[in-house]
Design a protein that fits this description.
heterodimer; A: 232 residues; alpha/beta; Rossmann fold; six-stranded mixed β-sheet; four-stranded antiparallel β-sheet; 7 helices; 28% helix; 28% strand; B: 268 residues; mainly alpha; 2 domains; 10 helices
């Protein structure tokens, strides 16, 4: 972790699909800037919803979520989502080349002022994520799910977000690729101070960064220190 | 045929019922069980059209702008209600946006056609305004229903794609641009197709009516061309306005897509 101080804060946040059965009930939580979090919980506990609340794809029924001390609603949504980037569970691409997919976000109005990455940078990232066999001109729809997962992660990283929300980023990856993804994320976390929250079912190897565990269940979110036993 | 229309008397109207009897006999013979619908349909045709005839005659007689506008608004509200029943969507209430877009675009096109193109004086002259506006509303109502149905269907089907774009800094307009295009095309294609087929595959209804009423076919054709062009124009304007207004309702204040896959107890 780079520093203390919270970057995202939940204040009495409740959320549910129906009034009677809340998914979260008056949750208070502080995500530290530069933290590395693993989100854990049984299926249906609201892991994806938790991430979607942070980038405002969902709105709480009551309570408030803050980003850098200000309510999420005080930011223009496109700007907020570029800073708090959510990578979906099922990798989604458009029917176009790998290059066009990676550059797509730079054509949105709110990102127009950002410098578009050169081919060299994109190729370098493909290589870092063990996708060296893939050309920038290849159609993205021809890639396997595991390759798409990494491509989508790269597309998000190119926007240099402050917070990364990853929904099972390695679910379709073999052990080696998953390890590479993990170490890349740890590097981003330690070197660039990116705050990362990751839903994952894999038992992580003790890596360069000691994660904090967020346990979801029974309408609550509990923060726990990492140890192998608690994970099991 | 002389100029002027041949009279159809009550006897002749009754004679026309022979066709319904033939249809009824077919239904009975083959066990189609359509007899009741045939009777109700025939009755409704008689009652509704006679009523319309008398109302129109009365309005023509009054020769005032207000009843004309009243009929115009009545037709629009009715069309909006029909669209509401045809487009099955529970999560977004779209009645008001389509009503507003219909009022704006139909007023614009109808006034332009009667007042400027046809040159009726005054622009609301009931003989011109009511039938032209009626054709406009009846035809582009279908286009609007098709467009909306497609828009909502596409947003639901391509939800992942929309959210992916939102997550990378797109606003709701950018994230749904493709779906709007698809919806607009779907709504406009039928009226473009009917322009292609006009006069070759079918003789359009308005022209048929005018020719039967003794008008010169070449004059009837001019009217028909105005009507068809007007239909394409109003279809485009009303679908675009309606689709854009309804699209805004599909997204929350934080540009989050509100349309969800149907699930029991799903939040709307």
């Amino acid at each position: 972790m780079v520093s203390a101080g919270s970057i995202v804060e939940f204040r009495d946040v409740s959320y549910g699909f129906s009034e009677g059965r809340p998914l979260f009930s008056r949750v208070n939580l502080s995500i530290r800037k530069g933290g590395y979090y693993l989100v854990q919980g049984p299926s249906g506990a609201g892991k994806s919803t938790f991430l979607r609340l942070i980038n405002r794809l969902e709105e709480p029924l009551s309570g408030e979520i803050l980003f850098r001390g200000r309510a999420l609603s005080s930011y223009p949504p496109p700007l907020l989502r570029r800073s708090i980037l959510y990578v979906q569970q099922s990798p989604t691409v458009i029917d176009a080349s790998v290059r066009e997919n990676l550059l797509m976000p730079f054509f949105f109005r709110s990102n127009a002022h950002l410098e578009r990455p050169e081919d060299g940078r994109m190729k370098g990232l493909l290589q870092d994520f063990l996708l060296q066999g893939i050309g920038l001109g290849d159609n993205a729809l021809t890639l396997s799910t595991g390759q798409l997962q990494r491509l989508c992660l790269i597309r998000g990283l190119l926007l240099s977000p402050e917070v990364l929300l990853l929904d099972e980023p390695a679910s379709a990856l073999d052990t080696e690729s998953a390890r590479v993804v993990q170490s890349m994320l740890e590097r981003m976390n330690t070197e660039s101070g990116v705050t990362a929250l990751m839903v994952t079912h894999r038992t992580p190897d003790p890596g360069a960064v000691i994660p904090v565990i967020l346990k979801l269940g029974h309408g609550r979110i509990k923060e726990e220190a990492w140890n192998m036993e608690s994970w099991r | 045929m002389e100029h002027g229309i041949l009279e159809i008397g009550p006897g002749q109207l009754a004679l026309a019922l022979v066709f319904i009897l033939a249809a009824g006999a077919t239904s009975l013979y083959h066990g189609l069980k359509l007899e009741r619908d045939l009777v109700v349909g025939t009755l409704r045709t008689f009652v509704q059209l006679f009523l319309l005839g008398y109302i129109l005659r009365y309005i023509f007689h009054l020769d005032s702008v207000w009843p004309v506008l009243g009929v115009f608004c009545f037709m629009i509200v009715f069309a909006a209600r029909i669209i509401r029943t045809r487009v099955k969507e529970k999560q977004v209430s779209f009645f008001w946006p389509i009503l507003i877009s219909m009022i704006i675009s139909y007023s614009l096109v109808s006034i332009m056609v009667t007042g400027v193109v046809v040159g009726a004086r005054p622009w609301w002259k009931p003989q011109y305004f009511i039938p032209l506006a009626g054709m406009l509303i009846g035809n582009s109502m279908n286009a609007m229903a098709i467009s909306l149905d497609r828009l909502l269907g596409e947003l639901r089907k391509r939800r992942q794609e929309v959210e992916m774009m939102l997550c990378h800094g797109a606003d709701y307009g950018e994230a749904s641009r493709d779906m709007v295009k698809t919806a607009m095309r779907a709504g406009m294609i039928p009226s473009i197709n009917s322009m292609m087929a006009a006069g070759v595959v079918f003789i359009p209804g308005m022209m048929t009516g005018q020719i039967l009423a003794g008008a010169d076919p070449v004059l009837a054709i001019r009217y028909q061309i105005v009507v068809m062009v007007m239909l394409v124009g109003s279809t485009a304007v009303v679908s675009l306005l309606g689709v854009l207004l309804v699209r805004r309702l599909c997204f929350g204040p934080g540009h989050q897509l509100l349309i969800r896959p149907e699930r029991p107890g799903g939040r709307s």
